[in-house]
Every structure is written in structure tokens, then in C-alpha cells.
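Review box. Two proteins, two foldings.
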Amino acid sequence: MSSTPLTCGEETGLHDKTAGMTTLRRSSISWPLLAVAAGALTLAACKKAEDTKAPDGGEVSHAEDNGGDAPADADDDAAPEFLTVDVFEDVMNAKTGEVTDCFAAAKEKTPALGGKLMLEFTIDGTGKVSAVKTEDASTVKDAGLTTCVTDKAKTWEFPKTRDGQTMTLAFAFNLS
């Protein structure tokens, strides 16, 4: 074969026969173009200091450069930074066992007890439960159960609210 450079799309005359298929090989690598593309990708991947601001004006925290797979330290496994509806629901689902304990105690006194316990939780800016109120739509009307859940809920902790103001969120427990 000659060493004449080939232009893009020019056939080399070599064929690749794999699994009964014939594919025409083309020599279309342009090394200078490849170098420019690699340089452009490298520059695009670099972050500038002014790009580290969050949309709300706060600083964006970057984990140690560990490939993004493992947490940089133990604090990354801690609770989320701010309370959101999703975080609230996750915490409430994790506390279902405590509510079930209260329900079991109330059911010993009232065996026919069951239904939907709908509560409204007021969470202060620091993430502490400041008030728990039974909603009118709740089908479970048992003072002992409500008192038990309220006492437990006042020990639950949530992440702080984003603006430091109280949040009131509702949650329903299906008890049967």
C-alpha cells in the first residue's frame, strides 16, 4: 500500500470481514481535528470560580475530587440541608413504627379502632415539631392515640427550613 494521505470519505480498499458481513473501511481520522476536539472538551469541563454560585446566591459545595462515587466525608451521609415536602414524607414514613406502637396500645383499649389518622405538623425554622393537630378529615378519633403520637412527634427532628420560618405539613397514617 502507498503512504498517500487519504481525504475524508476516500476508500482504502481494505475490507473487514466479521460474522459474514463485509464492511468497507475508511480512513477518516484527522489528527489535528481530534486534538482540537479534545482541547474543546477539556475546556468545557473546567469550572470557573464564578460558576460555583447557586441560583439562590449561596455557595455550591463541591465534594472532594473522588470521582463522584463515594462521599467526601461522613457529613455527606447526614440529614438533608433543608426541609422539603419530600424530606418530610421520608421522615414521616420512617416514623411509622412509632405511630404503629401508639396505635397498638390504643387498639388494646378499643379493639374496633382503625381508619385514617390525619395530622397537621407545624415545624419551626430549626426543624423541631412545635405543634401537632388532628385534621377534621381524620377518621380515627381517639384522644389516647392522638396524645401518644403527638408526644412522640414532639421529639422528632427535621432539617431546618430554608428561610427559617415555620412550615405546616399534613400527613395521613392508614391504621388498621
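Next protein.
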Amino acid sequence: MTAPVMTFEEVRAALRQRFPMIMVDTVISLEPGKSIRTTKNVTGSEIHFLGHFPEHAVMPGTLIVEAIGQSASILFSKTTGTGMQLGEFLVLGAINEMRFLVPVVPGNTMEIEVQVLKFVEDFALVEAVATVDGTTVAKGKLGFARRGLQGNNPPSAPRG
């Protein structure tokens, strides 16, 4: 197996999220402005499995979307070249055509591929596919915007 492009420590440094919300373990490929491939090792010790579901643990779809969002966030920061500045973060603005096709369970390694459909200043539209052992488990399109905390937001995108 080849070494990751970004280790867990580098991923953690690139993201605003902290335990228990870090949903990306490594970056296995990255082409700024185009695509990123990441991994998420799903383990039974993750806190959400206490209640989803106690009898048969299944990773919540919302956390699969979160893993896609975090992958997109890393891609966005590496594409803009500025990273995320203090007080900034990437917010999810739209989820389109999201499908959950196969349950993700502890012991799975989810691979997430995010392709850029469009970048416009501080906005991005991406298409993502999550797989486990080559089987598609989820796919969809998501929209993101860079935003600042406490009203420190960049200008709105032009309407058209």
C-alpha cells in the first residue's frame, strides 16, 4: 500500500472538526481544483453506534455526508491555496440527489471520492461517491460556501 498524501495528523490539522466529529482518516489522492480521495475507517467504538442501532450498528447517513463534506473542505482549502483562515469554515449549503445504497458498518473502510463540478470564488459544487470494497454505498451532489464566524462572511455570489 502506498503512503497517503495526507496522514491523520495532517487531516486533523486541516479540519475545524474535532473528536468525535472527524470523519476522514487519510487523503489518498488530491488534485487541487479537480478531485480528492479520502478514507474513513469505521470502527465499532465510535460513539454514534451506541444508539444507531444497538442491535445492529449502521453508520448514519448524515455522518457519511459529513465525511464527504470534510473531504470537500480539504479539497477546497488546497484548491484556493489560502486554506481556511482563522474564524472561517466551509458550510454545507445544499444536498442534491443523495442516495444511500448499502449500509456502512463497523469494520468497513469507506473510500470517498469527490469531484469538483464548479468553483466560483468562495463557493463550490461537488459530486461524491462513497464506496466500500469497490461497492458504491452512497452518492450525491453537495454545495458549499466559505463563511466566517460572527458576521465575517465574504460577499454573496452573483445571481444569474
